[in-house]
From TrEMBL:
Residues 35-44 have a biased composition (Polar residues). The lineage of its organism: Eukaryota, Metazoa, Chordata, Craniata, Vertebrata. It catalyses: a di-trans,poly-cis-dolichyl beta-D-mannosyl phosphate + L-threonyl-[protein] = 3-O-(alpha-D-mannosyl)-L-threonyl-[protein] + a di-trans,poly-cis-dolichyl phosphate + H(+); a di-trans,poly-cis-dolichyl beta-D-mannosyl phosphate + L-seryl-[protein] = 3-O-(alpha-D-mannosyl)-L-seryl-[protein] + a di-trans,poly-cis-dolichyl phosphate + H(+). The keyword RNA-binding does not apply. Pathway: Protein modification; protein glycosylation. This is Protein O-mannosyl-transferase 2.
Length: 706
């Protein structure tokens, strides 16, 4: 953009509010721009100049962003697809998400803590490229051999290749500067961490694709302010909604970009409300359009994702036990599918009882006794995750008994009481009496199989039967501890449902009439996912990454290999890029503070200085907000955290760096990319501390494990 064009663009910015007030109204209430004057409409020598970076402009200078965008795309594809099939074995979380892709191909039901879209797309990519879903994905390091795994890796790499072009277009739209856009894109092209995450069968490149797509569509929609309800206005609005549903459909982290778009939309509507040339009827149209495009459409698409998920995964599999008995009755091959049994519980019934917490298990008792010194030396009562003959229980009338009781603490949960099996052929004592109550019901309500939530109240102590979730030692066969909790508040740990039911004196009904509706299944799946996510805690001796580690690139993540003879891949961001991003965040806050003070003091700004100030406060402010929303929430999360959780936030900090840094940044990033590229593409031979290693002298921090 030459000097004349810059001056004209500044003039457009300065007069946009005036021109907006001079717009006329059509019969439908939409705005139309004033007709161009004869000075600009009658001559071929004069035309309204477009801003630099507009892809449809025919001028020679305006072709520069197009050529640059093509260059960005080519470099991005080359860096992501280079050595895409190496190493030819399972790396890190490919053991999870590759296996889940196989489950979709085989239509086998499974459980995961994330929404299903990412795994559906991985399975679809594998299916379309000839993968048959037979590789077991047991553990990292397993050889793929003849199995066709490259298609799933290539799909993730293709979406990862879109991130630098998206960053280029976003920064170009916000800053109107091709160099700034190129810097932002280059930071992502040459970041070793982004390359590594994009080359394997993971959810991260899919998630980041939809996050960046949401931001790009939101920014493009904002540029359509003077063309409300036009085709392009609707196109970018609806595409924003589609990308938002994709973000949330891959991981719940997608909520952060939804919040970002929501805040932007709220400010946009607030601006429209203050436009006195806009009638309240027109404002209502704007509001309803955004409700439809950014709330109703994403919700519909998000729900559709789960509908596809449930339709495809219709066969019994390893995920059955995480869900209720009613849910399991939908699955072909499950013992509850198309089964029949009595509908209501009665004396004389033989039942199995399932706990409602995630992986709570079936109430179980076997012949093995609690060891000496661990409470009463009687039969163990546990929760077992699998179907078994020892899960069967008899419902019988109580015997009259007035014996005294001696409460004993539970083996692991000392504030709870121990639960044991006692007696021969159904004869016991007062400690064996449990009252069955329907949760949320009243005394005497019938207990319905599959559907009723019940609790078991111990008559003598008034405590309730509980699955603590703690794993017993080897003497308890590493099954789940069952206790009697003195805290009678209803929780999933103390709630149970009747699954199998045998009583020859009662008529049977088909369980198909008890199958849950789609909305019930949708609700249950979200409850299970949320509980599962919050239950992800560090295992013994497992490294738990801290959020403060991430921006300073304190510690990476080993993807493959440990010793000199193995093919090693290590997830670590390009150090100069990550540290420059951190410096740029601080620099931006300082620049924003100075600009805000100058504006508040009435300092006169003209020409490009005013444009730069506007870009800094609005465009840069949006990117800073995006970084904060994708980073700060991890400080209050109770689940285990990993280094790769920072990468969505890193996208925003890199784009922010593009608006504040200069061309020297690209050269430095390129040099560091050359030095650190073995981390992404793999390496063999001596470790970094050996002078003969390809990474010799580059282990700048002791916490880097390569």
């Amino acid at each position: 953009m030459d000097g004349k064009q810059k001056e004209h663009y500044t003039q457009r910015q300065d007069t946009s509010a005036v021109r907006h007030r001079k717009t006329c109204k059509t019969n439908e209430g939409a705005e139309c721009l004033p007709q161009p004057s004869s000075e600009t409409s009658n001559g071929a020598n004069k035309r309204i100049p477009k801003r630099a970076g507009h892809l449809s402009s025919p001028s020679r200078d305006d072709h520069v962003p197009v050529y640059t965008l093509v260059l960005v795309l080519v470099l991005s594809v080359c860096t992501r697809f280079y050595k895409i099939t190496e190493p030819p074995h399972v790396c890190w979380d490919e053991t999870h998400f590759g296996k889940m892709g196989s489950y979709y191909i085989n239509r086998t039901f499974f459980f995961d803590v994330h929404p299903p879209l990412g795994k559906i797309l991985i399975g679809l990519a594998g299916y379309l490229t000839g993968y048959d879903g037979t590789f077991p994905f047991i553990k990292p390091g397993d050889k793929y051999e003849h199995h066709n795994y490259w298609g799933m890796r290539a799909f993730c790499a293709a979406l990862g290749s879109c991130l630098p072009p998206f960053a280029f277009l976003i920064v170009l739209e916000l800053s109107h500067s091709t160099p700034a856009a190129l810097i932002a894109a280059s930071l992502l092209i040459f970041d070793t961490g982004c390359i590594t995450l994009s080359q394997y069968i993971l959810l991260d490149p899919i998630l980041m694709f939809f996050i960046m797509g949401s931001v790009l569509c939101m920014v493009r929609f904002n540029t359509q302010r003077l063309r409300p309800f036009s085709f392009s206005w609707w196109f970018w609005l609806l595409l924003t909604g589609v990308c938002l549903s994709g973000s949330l459909g891959v991981k719940f982290v997608g909520l952060f970009v939804i919040l970002l778009v929501g805040i932007n939309t709220a400010f946009d509507l607030w601006r429209l409300l203050g436009d006195l040339s806009l009638s309240l009827l027109d404002f209502g149209k704007h509001l309803l359009a955004r409700v439809f495009g950014l709330i109703m459409l994403p919700l519909f698409l998000y729900t559709t994702i789960f509908a596809v998920h449930f339709i495809v995964l219709n066969r019994s599999g390893p995920g059955d036990g995480f869900f209720s008995s009613a849910f399991q009755s939908r699955l072909i091959g499950n013992n509850l599918h198309n089964a029949s049994m009595p509908e209501y519980l009665a004396y004389g019934s033989v039942i199995t009882v399932k706990n409602l917490r995630i992986a709570g298990g079936y109430l179980h008792s076997h012949w093995h006794l609690y060891p000496e010194g661990v409470g009463a030396h009687q039969q163990q009562v546990t929760a077992y995750l699998h179907k078994d003959y020892n899960n069967l229980w008899l419902v019988k009338r109580p015997d009259n008994s007035d014996e005294s009781i001696t409460p004993i603490p539970s083996p692991l949960t000392k504030k709870h009481l121990q639960v044991t099996g006692y007696g021969i052929n159904g004869s016991g004592d007062v400690n064996d009496l449990w009252q069955v109550e329907v949760c949320g019901g009243k005394k005497g309500d019938p207990v319905k199989v599959l559907r009723s939530k019940v609790r078991f109240l111990h008559r003598s102590t008034s405590c309730v039967l509980c699955s603590s979730g703690k794993t017993l030692p080897k003497w308890g066969w590493e099954q789940v501890e069952v206790t009697c909790s003195p805290y009678v508040k209803e929780t999933p740990n103390t709630q149970w449902n009747i699954e199998d039911h045998i009583n020859p004196k009662l008529p049977n009904i088909s369980l198909s009439v008890l199958k849950p509706t789609f909305l019930e299944v949708l609700w249950e799946s979200h409850i299970v996912m949320i509980r599962g996510n919050s239950g992800l805690k560090p295992k013994d001796n497992e490294m738990n990454s801290k959020p403060w580690h991430w921006p300073i690139n304190y510690q990476g993540l080993r993807f493959s290999g440990v010793n000199e003879t193995e093919y090693r891949v290590y997830l670590l961001g390009n150090p100069v890029i990550w540290w420059l991003n951190l410096l740029s965040l601080a620099l931006f806050v300082l620049m924003l503070t100075v600009a805000s003070l100058a504006k508040q003091r009435g300092v006169k700004m003209e020409g490009m200085r005013k444009v730069h100030c506007h870009t800094l406060m609005e465009g840069g402010g949006m990117l800073l907000l995006g970084w904060l929303l994708h980073y700060l929430p991890f400080y209050i999360m109770g689940r285990i955290l990993y280094y790769h959780h920072y990468f969505p936030a890193m996208l925003f900090s890199s784009m922010l760096t593009g608006t504040t840094a200069n061309q020297i940044t690209v050269g430095t990033a390129l040099v560091l990319f050359y030095l650190f590229h073995p981390l992404s593409y793999g390496m063999r031979g001596p470790l970094a501390q050996d002078p003969a290693s390809s990474m010799a002298g580059l282990r700048w921090m002791e916490s880097w494990e390569f």
